[in-house]
User: What shape does this take?
Amino acid sequence: TETLFTPHKAGNIALKNRIVMAPLTRNRADDTTGVVFDRHAEYYAQRASAGLLITEGAQISAEGKGYIQTPGIHTPEQVAAWRKVTDAVHARGGKIVIQLWHVGRISHTSLLPGGQAPVSASAIAAKAKTFTHAGFENTSEPRALEADEIARVVADYAHATRCAREAGFDGVEIHAANGYLVEQFLKDGSNRRQDAYGGSVENRARFLFEVVDAVVGAWDAGHVGIRLSPFSDVNGISDSDPIATYTPVIERLDTYGLAYLHMVEGQTGGAREGAFDDLRQHWTGTYMGNNGYDRTSALERVEMGAVDLVAFGRPYIANPDLVARLTADAPLNAGDTATYYGGGDEGYTDYPVLQTA
Ligand SMILES: C=C(C(=O)O)c1ccccc1
Assistant: This one.
């Protein structure tokens, strides 16, 4: 039978086990250039025993940046820096994809070129905060993208995909979750457009599918995953009927033959709530479940076929050798929340591995 520790092929990506490192923003990249450092190669390589690593969100453009010290995947310097990470992970037999991120309105004028306003589906400010040089601040009032600007944003996703391929990644994950740009179009609480990108579910999903078409077109479906969070209201996002919105979206995504669907099962990093198992029925490809998994629930949901892969977030911050610990049913290190975001090696590359007897 399939267990947490048996191999699995997710699209074109062969995984040695079902354990995935979920995307985790850690705010340790160079804030001016968006490049990652040697410590990033060490951090990801330490965790290479995972079946799949998903990097922290990496912005696809300067406009897509929403927090201090998050990395980019859209300039030659960023590509060269990420190359060291993929080489280090591959040298340890690991597989790694990069999460393509555009924050939309979850940003601040101080983080954007020329102090410009963040962009979104509509000019509706999020009830959310972000990390700026002044601390934790309210996100800025966004402007609505003009219809004729959308093609440029979609092209930025394709460009970032080509950069990811050049940097040696095994694939990309489209960040379509957690209240960022794609969800700002898809969910009805943040999209009041009167054009072809607003109103009906089909119109609100138009941007999502233009992004999927562009990313798949820049590589191929088997190297592209997508992350959704239908039931999360993180970052001030909301949808009045997630089942009505996401059922047709997932049915149509299923026709692409993507590498995987990564589902945040409930509130991001919170309650496991919402009918995610109903939505799963519309997906025939590889399904990656995330949110609050522990060893027992991971083993159970893989063995009953509820999920194919399990993405662990916080456990991977403090346990580089999570696979060994889950295999041995060993205790896990607790994470130090004070060093989750920002800083250097402390609380990043210095967590201890299990001492084998
Ligand atoms: C990229 C994030 C997400 O997807 O929620 C994120 C950003 C900042 C802090 C935590 C998480």
Notes: The first helix runs from residue 38 to 46. The chain has a mean pLDDT of 98. The pocket of 2-Phenylacrylic acid is lined by residues 25, 57, 67, 178, 268 (CB under 6 Å).
